[in-house]
Amino acid sequence: MNKLNAQGFKAMLESGANHLTNRYREIDQLNVFPVPDGDTGTNMSLTFSAGVKDALANRADHLGEVSKTFSRGLLMGARGNSGVILSQIFRGFTNSVVDKTELNALDIALAFDEGKRVAYKAVMRPVEGTILTVLRMAAEATLTHANDHEMNVIEVMDYFLNQANIALEKTPEMLPVLKEVGVVDSGGYGFTTIIEGFKSYLIGEPIVALAVKTGDQQAVQASFDHEEFGYCTEFIVRLDESGQRRFNEDKFKAQLEELGDSLVVVQDEDIVKVHVHTLTPGDALNLGQRYGEFVKLKIENMSEQHAAILVDEAKIYDEPEQQDKAVNIISVCAGDGLRDYFLSLNCDKVISGGQTMNPSTTDFVETISELKAETIIILPNNSNIVMAAKQARDLLEDRNIVVLETTSIAQGVAASIAFNPMVELDENLENMQEAVDHVISGQITYAIKDTSIDGIEITKDDYMAMMNKKIVGSI
Fold first, then answer.
1. What is the arithmetic mean of pLDDT over 241-252?
2. Which of the two residues, 125 and 191, has the higher pLDDT score?
3. pLDDT score for 135
4. Which residues contact 364 (CB under 8 A, 6 or more apart)?
5. How far is CA 388 from CA 48, 87, 274, 327, in A?
6. How far apart are CA 380 and CA 358, in angstroms?
């Protein structure tokens, strides 16, 4: 195969997604520490599948257009640090191929090299021995080889995969904690799994999705209360030639604002994505249809959903009124108890999520859209959620959004308590950060494998005591 066209590109992406989904549990278990908090495979699979789903819905015959759709899907569906990094890799890949109708071997090598550049730029403090290292070593070696040798598409992907696997095997030597536990980097393994899926398609053996138990992978939904119910209306419109000339984003937003609230409008070239809560979803759809064809649409009756919630008579805190606030706070946690507790403090919205169910960038974007304050403070409450929160912040450049890097529930609680609506923003942020810095938190969990950490011998299924995420004892 000397060239890869748009249809082949989509099939290749699907094969990669299937391979990743089939192996996500295996990837989850490649933890840096022998505790069951690894969700790298889950996050990468959900992220990559979101992008592939959008790519498959794009009927364009132009590979670059399909890749743009894929990249946007990854961006909006990114979950956890690994998902955000993965979205940046293929953002760079797309930058390189955006004008291509088909790809040859050198195009692919150049695209992965650009993916390397963009991904490294996106990470504040890149750590060697991770997915970034696997990508960098494979991309640089492949580009050099492709420049010096005649190769076809299959050969370049095979070479890239071999180099990625070589790099993956070296990750324990670069990151001592991996060597101590006896594993390779989980993100790097997830990435090579995707590339294996790519290669399998190219050689005529595409990976098919295996059956997954119901509930194994579920999209994380944000937890919202609405002042006014109606229909949650979402749609994506591909602008036709006439629509591209006539479409005015500001005017379109103004028209939709008359129909409802919680409005999000994102335009990228000829694609317009809309989210709005309205009592008249038909009117919103009619507005969108004026400019092109629907790629995707979804309408949910929030009144019925709310009625079902009201059946449960358990105490639920009302979310505070937001329109008169200068600052709104978003917190992330799992479980109704913690949700109610955060709402009883100073938080205005709570997104459901935690260690094993990281919210996506879209979850943050949609939650922010429901808030009216001039400044939004986000408390991720988990180190694996910080990057998705920051990616949402970067997407919403017209909003003043601060991501306070809380990495535990205890830190989130301390920050919420420290917030004082009567003082200026800078003073609040200083007080909240100071409160976070003074938090010491512990947890009890169990080991998923035999290992030795910091001189502590650990046996599978042992209970372990951790202080600030450092193992201090095992029994």
1. 91
2. 191
3. 98
4. 330, 351, 378, 388, 389, 391, 392, 393
5. 14, 10, 20, 21
6. 10
Classify 403 as helix, strand or coil: strand
Q: How far apart are CA 300 and CA 427, in angstroms?
A: 41
Cβ partners under 8 Å of residue 256, min gap 6: 263, 265, 274, 276, 278, 284, 287
Confidence band (pLDDT; 50, 70, 90) for 378? very high
Tell me the two tokens of residue 426. 């800078």
Greatest CA span in the chain, whole angstroms? 70
pTM value is 0.69
Domains and CATH numbers, the chain: 4-202 (1.25.40.340), 231-308 (3.30.70.260), 318-437 (3.40.50.510), 442-474 (no CATH)
Q: Does the pLDDT of residue 28 top 50, yes or no?
A: yes
**CA 127 to CA 85: how far, in whole Å?**
12
223 DSSP β-pair partners: 350
8 A C-beta contact, residue 160 and residue 146: no
- 245: three-class secondary structure by DSSP: helix
Between the CA of residue 149 and those of 115, 141, 172, 300, what are the distances in Å?
22, 12, 31, 54
Percent of the chain's residues with pLDDT above 90: 57
Is the pLDDT reported for residue 89 higher than 50?
Answer: yes
H or E segment and range at residue 146: helix 131-148
Rg (C-alpha) for the chain, rounded Å, is 23
Query: Exposed, middle or buried: residue 148 (CB in 10 Å: 0-12, 13-18, 19+)?
Result: exposed
State the average pLDDT over residues 114-137.
Answer: 92
CA separation (Å) from 359 to 3, 90, 350, 351, 363?
37, 20, 11, 7, 6
Q: Which of 230, 368, 224 is nearest to 299 (CA)?
A: 230
Residue whose pair of structure tokens reads 């495979």 in the numeric block: 41
Amino acid at 285: L
- Gap between the Cα atoms of 67 and 65, Å rounded: 5
Mapped onto helix, strand or coil, the DSSP state of residue 235 is: strand
DSSP SS3 for 457: strand
pLDDT for position 298? 78
Can you tell me whether residue 228 is helix, strand or coil? coil
Q: Crossing angle, helix 131-148 and helix 153-174, to 10 degrees?
A: 140
Query: What are the tokens at 196?
Result: 């294996």
Q: Say how many CA atoms lie within 13 Å of 239 toward its Cβ.
A: 19
Q: What tens digit of pLDDT does each residue of 339-369 get? A: 988 998 889 999 998 876 789 999 999 999 9
